[in-house]
Amino acid sequence: MSDMQTRQIIEQTARESYGRLVAFLAVRWRDLAAAEDALADAFLAALEKWPVTGVPDTPEAWLLTAARRRLIDGTRHTRVEAGAKQALITMAEDAQQWAGTETSFPDERLKMLFICSHPGIDPAVRTPLILQSVLGLDAARIASAFVVKPATMGQRLTRAKAKLKSDGIRFDLPGKDEWPERLDAVLEAIYAAYGSGWDDIAGIDPRRKGLAEEAIFMGRLIVRFMPDEPEALGLLALMLHCEARHHLRREEAGGYVPLSEQDHSRWSIEMIEEAEHCLRTAAQGKRIGRFQLEAAIQSVHAQRAWTSRTEWEEIALLYEGLVGIAPTIGAIVGRAAAVAEARGTESGMALLDEIPAEAVKSYQPYWALRAHLFKKMKRFEEARAAYSRAIGLCMDQSIREFLEKQSVEC
């Protein structure tokens, strides 16, 4: 096997197993930062040794053993406290068990989801902490999603991990009575992870490969443990509705295809029906929330698979409710788009004009929509300027080319 093939296997293992590995180590060692450092060293060791010795039959078990040794070696150079002694014993037994068999080690990510959402952690960093520690996003990507500098986000995450250790926060799944107060941060993190994977339309960013599927897996996991929680069901419904048409966002040649132009006959009916079941079950809880409303909007879009038309007025009304509950920039811009379709271009533009300039100066969807509405109003010079701004903010090549084509037509 070539060095390149070996590196690809290591990268694939990192994508598929990082969250499970770090959660397994952190829960047993009760030190998230130490677990992450040990795992990073294990991956470095793999890069050095596997090209020489060959890829082991069970890469995850090899990495687990290497990380465990790193943690034990670190402890040998410090005073071993009673808790650390027990962790050493537990980890040695666990690592020996899973290193010698084909059995997968326990998936501790559910614990880590709720541990990272502990009330003692700053609310502003709970979701980023989950994104990094459980879902494997790097600090730079998280910083971009939260519109802060990477160094700032890195400092926040470091402080949060130190607090987990210094405050003696339990690394066990909290009692069910504690789940509701931690659920919002958990759902936000899963939602952000899915959004990050969704944004990679071309599927070429190795940091985000498989992230949407992983988010859906975690969404299902939460629903399994909290089957009567409406917002957990709403989030799963939202992701399934989006995933039902994910593969149709690009044509065979690679070009971007907007939702309105997709072949709805090729959407996944199975996923849509599962999403609808989740929404119906959520409605029985009679506690409407952000994710249920977002899923309901996608549900209206999905009805085009049967009716061949989009009920824009219904979508506009749902956006009104969403903005009332969660007035994010994304929701406000989405409402403007729906209102423009349902009640006229000028009405949509009026809503865009109400948004403070500072809030949308770097928000690409705002400029893309503004350009589209200017174009419909035949205000071509303003449309070209807005398209230029949207193109400059666009990170995806296929969407950039789509916008450039729209601009040329002005």
Question: Brief overview, please?
Answer:
This protein has 410 residues and is mainly α. Helix content is 71%, strand content 0%.
Distance between the termini: 53 Å
Helix content range of the residues, please?
A: over 70%
Mean pLDDT comes to 86
Shape: globular
Name a few traits of the molecule:
single chain; 410 residues; 21 helices; 0% strand
What does this structure look like?
This protein is mainly alpha-helical. Helices cover 71% and strands 0% of the residues. The longest helix is centred in the first third of the chain and has 27 residues, at 3-29.
Please outline the helices and strands:
Elements: H1 3-29, H2 32-53, H3 59-76, H4 82-99, H5 109-115, H6 123-133, H7 139-145, H8 150-166, H9 179-199, H10 211-225, H11 230-243, H12 269-283, H13 290-302, H14 304-307, H15 312-325, H16 329-343, H17 345-353, H18 357-360, H19 364-376, H20 380-393, H21 397-408
